[in-house]
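request received
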Amino acid sequence: MNFLLKIWRQPSPDSKGRLVSYSVTDISPDTSFLEMLDTLNESLVLKGEEPIAFDHDCREGICGQCGFMINGRAHGPLTHTTTCTLHMRSFQDKETIIVEPFRAAAFPVKKDLRVDRSALDKIIMAGGYISVRTGQAPEANSIPISSEAVEGAFDAAACIGCGACVASCKNASAALFTAAKISHLAQLPQGQIEHKKRTRKLVETADQLGFGACSNTGACEVECPQQISIGHIALMNQEYWKS
Amino acid sequence: METSHSYLRAKIPEGPLEEKWTNYKRNARLVSPANRSSYSVIVVGTGLAGSSAAASLAEMGYNVSTFCFQDSPRRAHSVAAQGGVNAAKNYQNDGDSIYRMFFDTLKGGDFRAREANVYRLAECSGHLIDQAVAQGVPFAREYSGYLNNRSFGGVQVSRTFYARGQTGQQLLLGAYQALMRQVHLGKVTSYTRHEMLDLVVKDGTAKGIIVRNLDTGAITRHAAHAVVLASGGFGKIFYLSTLAMGCNGSAIWRAHKRGALTACPSWTQIHPTCLPQSGTHQSKLTLMSESLRNDGRIWVPARLDEMRPPAAIPEDERDYYLERRYPAFGNLAPRDIASRAAKERIDAGFGVGPLKNAVYLDFKDAISKQGVEEVKKKYGNLFDMYEKITGVNAYAEPMKISPAAHFSMGGLWVDYELSTTVPGLFAIGEANFSDHGANRLGANSLLQACVDGYYILPYTLPHYLAGLSAEDRAISVDGPEFEVAEQEIREEVQRLTKIKGTRTVDDFHRVLGKLLYDYCGLSRSSTGLLEAIAKIDSLKKEFQEDVLIPGTPDRMNDELEKATRVADYLDIARQMCEDALTRNESCGAHFREEFQTSTGEAARNDAEFAFISCWRYGKNGSEMVREPLEFEYVKPTERSYK
Ligand SMILES: Cc1cc2nc3c(=O)[nH]c(=O)nc-3n(C[C@H](O)[C@H](O)[C@H](O)COP(=O)(O)OP(=O)(O)OC[C@H]3O[C@@H](n4cnc5c(N)ncnc54)[C@H](O)[C@@H]3O)c2cc1C
Ligand code: FES
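response:
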């Protein structure tokens, strides 16, 4: 397959960026999007040019390190898929593909397609945990937890922290990310004691970090690689206003 | 290669097996709470081992700095572990016990690990589950609300705890959250996108590290009273592997060059159930969790010239080779055995898929017995992942799988205290060689990473700190040792970027990976290994003369980042071959063609090789030192899974 790529190039955080065109040829449909970029990068390197910087690590959809906008959508044309598990078979031969970094006030561009998502860590830091000491804890089976509660907690806990929810939101809100953590811990008995305080802290921290407010369009849910539901946001909002 | 006549000793505590760890804890020195904040500890790596250690030490009151190359501690490759974590809770009442888990692990490792370490791992396993549940890890439950288990390869009980197919992610989030809590409290400073490029050693003890900021290129010094390496596995040396793109051996290799011995570096687990190679474009081979072997049956066609699609091949024309060769364990035979059996069929021409390099993993029977919904509940996300990558629906046709490099049993040598041969330098998690012997059992490695970090280091590291002299307690990044180390790194990155040759870093890495897989992978021979060493030497020379890295080292430079790792991989690869060459026996994952039984199984040689091969760095080749393995409690037997 052949493609025309228009890729955002920006040498450093404070320089101006622009879209640069590259054509890639002879790509097998089974190549992943990132492997296609590897091929392009290798050809750039051989010409002595700087390769395109992009984030990635596990390349199996779980570490949350990859992610950029492909034709205007976070992680590309498929729903619930990370950029690294997207394959070229999902594109048309000879298609023009526009590749840009995630855009959000709280995610400044570092270089090309690589952005700074440390704000997500700061949200967790504010209280996205159960304050138990390591090293000791009561016998695990002493508190039975219904299978539904655990599965519900898991659905939220599955978040990979990629930031696609923020990038696909017109307000650049981190509501889905924040709500997922609140909901994960709130559904387990161990997480309930700190629940109110946690909700308040996380929501306020996200605000302070420059993430926008949620206006319930549901765009985030569509792109979330782990299919985390915006139902969690409603619960978070209810709880926040109560606290 | 030379062999030294001295021996290494592991400092195993006195007393009966069941009491050794208790005795150790009873006698370990402590640092008083008021003094702890005057000690600094560096932890390189934020996977399960690093995060758990850093959070625990910070809670105790020490000042901790963590380093990782990803942009968040939560992205360490522990996150990718799918299948589960073992613990001898015996919740299933199926005959499990600490002793049985100890024995299974020792046998699984083909009796090439220390009894005392392995026993301690089993002993601490139950606590880990308690602690993870308290942190909010959503392990699978039965309808009653009690914890559920499943089976993994190489055992006959169900002791594996799991959170769907994302157990590593959930355990890591627990540890990461504990870590972030300490960052918030000001007890941990977290450096992300920082790569350790050297260890600083003064008067024989570890004093700090030199790191490069991957975003800015800045090179900085960090001093501490102790350095903990939790940098994970280096299986990415094979280029195609189940590891993440950034996984590397540089942290441990550079510590090795500064005096820390390695142990059994060639013992690599090649995992039987990964996605096969399908061309030249691939950058990794994704793992399909071993848990799939609970319900999936592995087979190849019985006829050599088979052209029919799998569903059209009748039962009696299929060869369920694991069930045939290992009836007692069947599809749950341990990994080394399952991988070799797959290779045997593929090499004999029975492989499936366009390149005839795979075998089938078939869920047809499970689906007809349990229903699609039940199978989906257990493995849904794995089936989804398979479909995303291959475009194939595995509910309708069997998966195609193949062996791929996965886990490093070898690593830095550590004693019972997890201390390397350099005082003040500890190694935990996959970075050390420790508990898995010559073959790791599935679901034991998340456990080992957590046990090292949550339960062992919090006793052994303070024991070290409490013994420091007043002179050793003064730390600073000034002084000639830091000066020299930093200067060497500056020169190295300058030199690499100035070569401006004609070949890319990935090109070298791919060649090295293939070489290593062919000669030091599933099967090894002395002629092959000697050939490999010669080829690696010339590849290293070519790399140093002809690698092409655009740009400069004083800013973000992804090619340079990869190049420092590949430079170390070239050295590690050589030592792996030396290690494999000097072990004239087969054991676990180390299969030397010259040493096999009449039925093609590994032929171990306890009389001559019941030791750990430890390696000291030398510019012109490594020197071997032995740590003898003594078996007081179990008698090593032939490892049979028939
Ligand atoms: C795909 C896959 C599936 C697996 N499934 C299972 C399973 O089901 N059960 C099981 O028990 N085990 C499993 N394993 C094995 C297990 O996941 C690992 O052995 C374990 O998680 C390793 O943890 P760790 O903390 O030692 O290393 P990692 O989690 O790999 O962490 C390494 C850390 O070191 C940092 N680092 C590395 N080098 C440097 C450097 N030079 N400078 C700075 N930082 C550095 C990294 O940034 C990272 O933070 C699996 C492994 C893989 C690859
Ligand atoms: S690279 Fe890890 S999720 Fe894509």
